[in-house]
Specification:
The protein is mostly helical and 79 residues long. The protein has 4 helices and no strands. This is Putative cytoplasmic protein.
Length: 79
């Protein structure tokens, strides 16, 4: 039996980068300058997803995620 995964493709680009450069904590800006994506991702995961710093792509996606997956971090429930 095939295993199905739900996939949501979300583009996050220059607006998030600009917001992080202006507003993020110094250690996050350093990770961004060093192109250390894993460090930036960890810091973004620690933010409240409703925080405007996350950008409109994340802010708009979060209600959809909550509706489909509840508060689970790893959503595996089929649509």
């Amino acid at each position: 039996m095939p295993m199905w995964r739900d996939v949501l493709i979300c583009t996050v680009g220059i607006s998030l980068k600009a917001d992080l450069e202006r507003q993020a904590a110094p250690d996050c800006r350093q990770d961004l300058e060093r192109c250390y994506a894993k460090g930036v991702a960890k810091k973004l995961l620690a933010l409240n997803p409703d925080d405007r710093l996350c950008g409109s792509e994340i802010n708009c996606t979060r209600p959809l995620y909550d509706r489909l997956c509840g508060s689970e971090i790893n959503c595996t429930r089929p649509l």
